[in-house]
Amino acid sequence: MIPRSIPVDEANRVQREVWKRGYSTRSGGRDAAVPGHQVVEFLRMLDDLPDPGDVSGMEQDLERVLSGGRIKAPFAGSGSWIETVQGRPPRNRVA
């Protein structure tokens, strides 16, 4: 989970573009510290827990996605953390 504060006007466009790049998102509500911004929590599902040092690399990868090319959106904030998911639904397998 990697929360970032982005402008409300950009939220739908940014979420749509990061979905295309393998991220899920959920709203963290309005950013009380920055009027006109909302917190969006960017999520990546991992099969195995990463080494603690790899978590900051995931944060930097997201920031490259948010700043580059098609997305190019202002964002603020830092930090990331891992949440474990219990009872994850099985993947659909094609035979």
From TrEMBL:
Name listed for the protein in its UniProt record: Uncharacterized protein
Originating species: Amnibacterium soli
